[in-house]
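Hi P.,

Sorry for the delay on this. The queue was packed all week, but I finally got your sequence through. Input first:
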Amino acid sequence: MIFHTIFVVDDEESIRSGLTHILKGKYRIRGFPAAEEALAAVKEAPPDLVLLDLGLPGMSGIDALRELKAVSPEIQVVVITAYDDVKSVVSAMKNGAHDYIVKPLQADTLDVSIRNALEAVRLKKEIRDLQERYLRENLPGFIGTSDTIQDVMELVATLAISPDTPILILGETGTGKELIASAVHYRSPNFKGPFVSVNCAAIPRELIESELFGYEKGAFSGASTGGKKGLVEHAAGGTLFLDEVGDLSMEAQAKFLRFLEEGEFYRVGGTRKHHVRTRVVSATNKDLAAMIGKGLFREDLYYRLAVATIAVPSLNDRPDDILPLARHFLLEFNRKFGKSFTGISSEAETALKAHRWRGNVRELKNLVERGALIGKEKVLDLRDLGLDMSTAGRDGKRHPEERNLIEFPPGGIDLVSVQEALERRYIEAALLRTEGNESKAAKLLNINHHTFRYRRKKLNV
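Then the structure:
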């Protein structure tokens, strides 16, 4: 049986002893005659609930409430007050009290108030457990023990607490900026709200405004007869993630700046003002400072987006995490492809650590996916990964002719999956070479822009 701890803070000994007598069979009870003593005990071992008298000598009950919430925001506080002290009750509720009870105390009222407060404690712990589980299961890009990634995740936890503060995430292609944005969302008070991701580079410039803010009936040729909500509205109460924010047009930047400053916007073709509360997290692999100097990005928007910044390290800057990530991805693809790899060969591990990761975690994941698809042994080896060192023979010399040898596992391969994996790698490489410019990337692959965009979306690149 789980026993909750309750602190009773009241200068009247009769009330402390009376409450202790009533509650001691159900809860762990500690009594304090003054707020100062209770706060010292809270700092050592926070309770689940504090029953706090507002009429204390020394530090007042309201000041004590503020201190309690500052020391441990998770603590639930039920204030005890005189019958006619309405002003103090209002102040207490504004400062974070869960409930209030009026002297003289009634056992039934006290019991209900305590049970409701402890239920709130339980729900908060349940939400936190759900958040932690989500983060463990859905953020593989941040598996690892390196100091650099631990520092990043510590910063994420700190910044996530505020539900409104805009955050700008900076990092190379493939480092997991969207995963960081997701981590911010699922650690924040907005956890139950939607997480809406927008790839600004994938939406044509002439449509970005209507996609973000929506449009009214008949706003333009081809507009839906009923109008349409924008992504900003869909993100209400949650988090709006603007990926590749550096690709916003100057016009869209101006309108988004107004939304950030005022929390309001107009749909395209509309005259009614809309208000939405959502946290905005943005990301880019571009040098926004250089773009500001060239007049391609608004300086005022930059400072609104970058109230807090998170710099995501490249995989090359966290080499200690390469092998843990590779092993995690191998387990993932074991499940996906019905394989039974038991590990990675020592030669392959050496090659992975020596490789220069231009595509970062995404490149590593794709490499392991390829290996898991074509590998036929229980251990993933150099040839499966397709790294440069995969042509090394047993004599330690390179044998280029071996590149032409294709081996098949006993059950054959899924050719469609192999083709998609290969296509995904080339699309990512083309985007990397062209710094995310889709038109130039399409030219490198000798396909038109529309086909490139379709294949990129289909393959979730």
